[in-house]
Design brief:
Shape: globular
Order of helices and strands: HEEEHEEHEHHHHHEHEHEEHH
Bound molecules: adenosine-5'-diphosphate, magnesium ion
Largest sheet: 6 strands, mixed
Distance between the termini: 46 Å
Number of helices: 12
Length: 293
């Protein structure tokens, strides 16, 4: 009995320590600008990690580099490694990356309308993902699509499967994108500002779905957001990014109770919750030093 308990404890400790993603000292530049500067970031199995920082700080570039979807004409990776489990994905060719995208890593973006094809029904679009990744016949693919749409909270999935993207609301389209992203049961879901375009109530529903599915599928999530309230509610750890660098990496509760960097402190002080209407908003400085601990 006691031995079983110890074994269980070790097993769960080890499982939580499995590294799904390990970015090591990633440097990316355009021909005249440094975009990422020694960015390191780790995600363990089942963790939801927040990546926060002002617009232009390098969050999306970090995400796109994980999928090898950088705009190669505009920027290049100078140095660094990106390990997915034990493999450095920067050494993969395009064919190998296609296997990884959608099989091991999926991504959802801010504006689902641009990622959905307007001339095909959502059923056909999700089925297509199955037929590529799961090798299913049409009936089986349909069955799986309906169950996925149900899971992400699309009403009457048997009917909705025949709808076109423009017949759905913004929130429903984002749910469809999540269903599509999850159809191959990825180890890692990257969500780049997935709810920024949605109203507050829909935003909360979508984040709850992502969080529930993370637990059910034992998936890891990299959640890119500028909303610290979202981070506080859902993320285990947070990376704060500023001008292409990671300024700090903390457990979520530590970030809020004892932020290390003055930039993080200022960021926390600009939250609406600590600034009742009428109170003057604190000012975010133009420049923060990088080794200020
Ligand atoms: N295709 C591109 N060509 C040139 N510069 C780019 C391109 N994409 C992003 N950048 C630059 O890289 C930096 C980081 O951008 P990004 O990762 O999109 O920021 P964030 O997602 O944090 O708002 C910005 O300075 C941006 O102007
Ligand atoms: Mg972005």
């Amino acid at each position: 009995m006691f031995n079983n308990f110890i074994q269980y404890l070790f097993k769960s400790m080890n499982e939580n320590n499995i590294e799904i993603l390990n970015i090591q000292k990633l440097n990316i530049s355009t021909f005249n600008n440094k975009i990422l500067n020694n960015v390191s970031l780790k995600i363990h199995k089942g963790e939801m990690i927040g990546l926060v920082g002002e617009s232009g700080s390098g969050k999306s570039v970090t995400a796109l580099s994980i999928l090898a979807l950088l705009d190669e004409k505009a920027m290049k990776i100078d140095t660094g490694k990106i390990f997915l489990s034990n493999e450095n994905i920067l050494e993969k060719n395009e064919k190998e990356m296609q296997e990884i995208r959608g099989n091991k890593i999926s991504m959802i973006f801010q504006e689902p309308m641009t990622s959905l094809n307007p001339v095909f029904t959502i059923g056909d679009q999700i089925n297509e993902v199955h037929s590529i990744h799961n090798n299913l016949n049409r009936d089986k693919a349909n069955e799986l699509t309906i169950s996925l749409l149900d899971k992400v909270g699309i009403p009457n999935p048997e009917i909705s499967i025949k709808k076109y993207p423009h017949q759905l609301s913004g929130g429903q389209r984002q749910r469809v994108m999540i269903a599509m992203a999850l159809s191959c049961r990825p180890k890692l879901l990257i969500a780049d500002e997935p709810t920024t375009a949605l109203d507050v109530i829909v935003q909360a529903q979508i984040l709850k779905i992502i969080n529930d599915l993370r637990k059910e599928l034992e998936m890891s999530v990299l959640l890119i957001t500028h909303d610290l309230g979202v981070v506080q509610d859902y993320c285990d750890r947070v990376y704060v990014m500023y001008k292409g660098r990671i300024l700090e990496n903390s457990k979520t509760k530590d970030l809020f109770s004892k932020p290390k960097h003055s930039y993080t402190k200022d960021l926390l002080n600009t939250r609406p919750a600590v600034n009742p209407p009428g109170k003057e908003l604190p000012i975010i400085k133009e420049d923060y030093s990088f080794d200020d601990e």
